[in-house]
Design brief:
Blueprint (H helix, E strand, L loop, with lengths): L12 H9 L3 H11 L10 H9 L7 E6 L9 E5 L5 H24 L10 H9 L12
Antiparallel strand pairs: 1-2
Helix pairs in contact: 1-4, 2-4
């Protein structure tokens, strides 16, 4: 495993929150609603992008690899980080979750899905790990 570059790859929660607070969240929510995707902009520095990208070749950092064509999703592949997550990813994940959960819940409601996502990422992780997770669903209207 290669050493991670310096900088925010070893971020703290305070450091990770700074660029997230500069995102135009109203625009992001509007784009998600109208186009189904949105670009957050300069969330990571070029150094951080290179550092995260450099990890891709280290299979020990990942728990699984998805080859998109095997599932009819087009071309390419992606991987899911294993634990422990890189510090920058670990710090950004709950901050981004809490900004995006409202959109996820609106989509779930519009699709008449019974699932509602909790406001806090930690609650989501607890629910996801729980064998009783299906009991947290709401009734269909």
């Amino acid at each position: 495993m290669s050493a991670a570059p310096a900088g925010r790859l070893a971020a703290t929660a305070v450091d990770a929150a700074r660029p997230v607070s500069s995102v135009a969240w109203t625009r992001v929510e509007d784009e998600l609603e109208t186009a189904g995707c949105a670009v957050l902009g300069n969330l990571l520095s070029p150094e951080e992008c290179r550092g995260i990208s450099a990890m891709y070749g280290d299979d020990a950092r990942f728990r699984s690899r998805v080859v998109m064509s095997r599932h009819g999703f087009g071309r390419g592949e992606y991987k899911y980080f294993g634990h422990p997550l890189p510090p920058l990813v670990r710090e950004l994940r709950p901050i981004l979750y809490e900004r995006l959960v409202r959109v996820a819940n609106r989509w779930s409601e519009a699709l008449r899905e019974p699932v509602r996502f909790p406001e806090r990422h930690a609650e989501f992780l607890e629910r996801s790990a729980s064998p009783q997770r299906l009991a947290t669903r709401t009734r269909r209207s």
